[in-house]
Each structure stands twice: as structure tokens, then as C-alpha cells.
Amino acid sequence: MESKAKVLGHAVHPIMIVFPLGLLGTSVIFDIIYMIWGSPTMATVSYWMMAAGIIGGIIAAPFGLIDWAAIPSGTRAKSIGLMHGLTNVLVLMLFVGSWGMRYGQPDHPPTSASILSLIGFALSGLGGWLGGELVERLGVGVDEGAHLNAPNSLTSGSADTSDPAYSKNMARS
Hints:
By secondary structure, this protein is mainly α. It contains six helices and two strands; from the N terminus they run E-E-H-H-H-H-H-H. The chain has two domains: 137 residues; 27 residues, no CATH class. Strands 1-2 form a two-stranded antiparallel sheet. The longest helix has 30 residues. The relative contact order is 0.14.
């Protein structure tokens, strides 16, 4: 099933999720450094990385919702996609809660804020695995004609070798 939200021939959602996943995960690393060494600078860095990661997650989510809405009902992919989306909404809520607990004192967060972000980080692994299951196992977001020698995504037409547009594109190459 091909993605419905694309830019330059590629699905937008998988492009966008790397930012919040990386930022939120790294915020947890800075939290751990803060907890070990007590550096207020590390706690402040965590706070701002978390803010950027939350914004990135909010931007990435609608593109995932667009793709999920296009998955046929009653399929395994539809239910896995729902679990993926709900898990990641919960992850964002945990990080928003953690960020909110730090507001006004980003250099000295309460331990409970760090616990929320650690739980959010652990759940993001589950959400990422479910997303991988959708793409790698179930082919959601993958071009219908994908194969090892498909033309690049910037060419017009399909990657499907049985599509006449494929032959036309290959003749131009």
C-alpha cells in the first residue's frame, strides 16, 4: 500500500518521525547525565530538546493519520497502525507531562518528570517497533511496484515493471 502523504516521491511520516524520536530520546540521555552528575546545564538542554521533540511529534502525527486512514478496514495493518498511533500519542503525552513539570525550573526538574520521560522513551521503542512492523512486514507506505531495481522516486510514473509508464521512464534513462 502506497503512502498517501508524499513529498518528492517519499512518504512524509517516516521522514518526519526521526526528529521527535531523536530529540526525545536524547532528552532522556541528558536527563540521565543530570541525575548522575547534577549539572543544571544538562537538565536545561533536556528541557529544550524535549520541547523541540514534542513539536516535531505534533507535526509528524497528521501525516501518519493520513496514511492510517487509507489502510483498508478489517486488516491487520489497520489494527497495528491504530496501536502504533495510540502508543505514540501516549508517548507524546508523557513527554508533555514531563516538560510541563519542568516549566519554570528547567535546570532542576523533579524526579517524577524524569520518570515520565523514561517511561515515554521505553514506550517509544514499542511505537517504533509497531511502525517498523507496518512498513517492513506489512508494506504500508511502500510503493506498490517496489523492487530491487526500481527507478528512483523522482521519475514520473510507477516503480511497477508491468506499468507502461515504467518502460517509458526506463527508455529515457
